[in-house]
Every structure is written in structure tokens, then in C-alpha cells.
Amino acid sequence: MILAVTGGKGGVGKSTVALNLAAELDAVLVDADLGMADLPGASGPDLHDVLAGRATVEEAVCVCGSLTMLPCGRSLAGARAADVGDLRAALERLARRVGPAVVDCPAGLRSDVGVPLLAATACLLVTRPREPALTAAVRVRELARALDAPLAGVVCNRTEDVAAESIASTLGAPVTQIPDSATLARAQRAGLPVARADPDGTPARRFARLADRLQSLRSAT
Amino acid sequence: MATLECDHETVAGVTLVTCRLTSDVARQVTLEPTHDEPIWPPRRQSVPESGWHDDGWTGVVPADGIRALGYATPADPADPLARVAATEPPPDDPSISARDVVRSLGDPRPTRDAVPPTDAPDRSVADEGGVDSDDSTASVAVAPSEDAEPGRTPTRTDPSTVASGGGSPSSTDLDAIETRLWTARDLADVSTVAEARAAVERAGGLPAVRDLAAQLDEDREHLATVEERAARLAADADAVSIPVASLERLA
Fold this sequence. Notes:
Helix content of chain B: 25-40%
CATH topology of the largest domain in chain B: Immunoglobulin-like
Shape of chain A: globular
Structural class of chain A: alpha/beta
CATH architecture of the largest domain in chain B: Sandwich
Order of helices and strands of chain A: EHEHHEEHHEHEHEHEHHH
Radius of gyration of chain B: 34 Å
Distance between the termini of chain B: 103 Å
Radius of gyration of chain A: 16 Å
Oligomer: heterodimer
Mean pLDDT of chain B: 78
Low-confidence stretches of chain A: none
CATH architecture of chain A: 3-Layer(aba) Sandwich
CATH class of chain A: Alpha Beta
């Protein structure tokens, strides 16, 4: 399984959703934001090195706390050397040799979003109930359709009471709402899934429920 | 059958080759240069146009249609400069490649000019947080400890290495302590061997658990000091009042 977590707009919570779902699904969390990585990092080879031909994905995967990760470098030189054209092969090799992958995609609609969608078994749209974020989500959904990446669901982040049915019918997939939560934000800053901090809280329960729904994808290649 | 017409001209020492491929039925054609010099195909978003590879071009020529191609090469002009190397029926399902996506959506890499000359592409200081756009985490203090795991540099979010500081705690320090407490609770809440093993693994192994226990001892002392100081400051704050009205009259 390769699940691409995307959304088009920056700051909607893609990394938070990706981290928590990777923990729930026991999958490898891939920081595919080649230019602005913001998930936990570690020393050693990273995705920049993989895409520059300096390391294999198996060498770059590391255990970071409770997460298994393929981290991304943070240097401009590393981003410059990384060939996004090789990202599909890297993700497919990761899924084949290491295990299921949850890919945190960058903002925008460039090829660093398109290539993960091309490789993905399914994608998840993260958005917020605001016009710019929803517009970006619609654009990414169109790109995902063009690249044959099925939409597995929509996460409406930092909100509780929005017209989920309207968003679901617009984007064509069930909506999971994640409420605003200081604990979730602090856990994310610490690089931890919220289930470690507050396992009985609403965000942790919603992520667990969403992961249950996505479990069927795990058997897909 | 596919037929090829080639032409060329030389500009500033570079040979520009133009090719016209025609076929009576749709065919997948492979075109190869007849020389050993490199070929420079047309590019879009820094990626060679669809069909070009190191050895030439492979693509479909439509039935009764023309496929026009062009490339540059440092090879001396000759006749012909290219030949049809293979023809076969067109593939049933032309799939999209990652290169197609890069060609269509653009290469996200920073331009060469944007990369500082000192920013080496191998393991660099910048990789360890020197270039970091995430303001929310940039302020987290990370101090490499002497007993850190060998071969692993502490990361900016490694809970076992976030310093609590020696003075008054900032919200970042308290966040770090809270993070350690989450891990501690995770370790304390086990009831079976399997749960214990999983919790230790999540915490980063037994050495990390020992470090965490020692760090929590320091945290307790630190929090007690902070609590005492906070109580004293609160009492002082209760005991003092600024005579604003009197000061205004005197001023």
C-alpha cells in the first residue's frame, strides 16, 4: 500500500494527518516534502540521498521514536540533487521491500505531488473548511483522477462542526473531521502520534477510526 | 513500413538534426543515431521530451501520419545521422511515467543559483536543522548529549534529548517535559510482557528508557524548584500594589 496524503494548500495539517495515520496503520511515514521537510528527521541517509542515487530506500528508513520513517533532508543542495522522477520507483520499492507507506506530500500541484499520486494505491485529501483550502483540494482531486489515484477519504482538519456532507459530495469521498486540539499540536511538535499523548481524546479516536477504514488498502500493492 | 528522412545543419559547431518518420500503419518505432557522439534531445522542465532516452527515441508513428523529431549533437555532419533501429506494433496501453509527470507539472528542484556554494550535497550541517522553514519547531533547543546513541545525532524532536534548561521554564521546556511524561506513562501502563516490549521499543530501547528515567528525576527537581519560585513570586505579587493614583498625582 502507498497512501499519498495531499491537499494542495500548505498549513492545512497534511503532516499531522500523515504522521498519525502512519502510526495507526503501522506503516512507514515518508516525508516527501523535498523542499520543506517538516517531519522528524534523523542523521544518516534520507530521501534526498535516495533520489540522488546515493542510498537505497532500505538504507534510508529509520526508526524515530515509535515511528518507522523515511525522513527527508533539509538542505537546498540535497533538494537540488534529488531527482523527483525517481520517486515513484523509490516508493514502490519501499512498499515492496519494507512495508506499507504513508506519504506526506508537499503543498502545490507540481511533480513532487504528481509523482507520489502516480505511485499511490490511494490518496487522502486534507483540507480546512475555507475557500482557498477547498479550492486547492478540488484541484488536487482532479490531478489524482488524471493519474488514476483513487480518493480514499477527506480529512477536514481543525474543525468540528462543518457541513461535512457538502464537502463529501463536492470532493466525492467520506469526510473525517479532526477538531482543533492543543494536545495534538504539541504531540506533532514532538514528532509523536496524538494517541501516545491522549489515547482517549477525540483526535486519537478519529484517526483510529479513519485508519480502520483504510486497513483494506494495506493488502493492496 | 516506417520510413525516415533526415536533414541537418551546423550552427556554432553543433549539428542540428531534423527527422521525419512516416508509416502506412501505426507502429512503434525506435530511432538510433548512426554515430557514437551523445545526443541532446529537446527538453521540457529539464526533462527530455517524451520518448527520448540515452540511445535515441522510441515512440508511435500514427498510420498515414508524420512524426517530426529533432535533436542536437556534437557529431560531425554525416548522411544519414540516424536510422530506424526497430519497428513493432504500438503498445495497447500507453502508460504515464514519472518522467511524463515531471515534464507536465514541472521540476520542483531549486535552481542552481539558489544553492549556496558551501551547501554540500552530502551529510551536512544544514541537514541537521540549519535550513528549516518550520518556525514552530525551530526554537526547540537540542543539545547533543555525551551518552547519545552512537552513530546517531540527536534530532530536533527526539524527546530524550530536548533540554529542559536550568533557569525558568519556557513553554517549550514544559512541552518537552510533557512529552517525556507521555512516554513515561506509556512505559508505566504495560501489563504484559508483549506490551512492555512494545513500549520499550517505542521509547527507543532500554538505554533510552534509562536516560528517560534519569531525565525525569531531573525534571521533578526542576519542577519543584519552579513550583517553589512560582509560589514565592505569587505571594510577593499579592503583597505588593502599585499606588498608581498617588504616582499620577505626584507626576
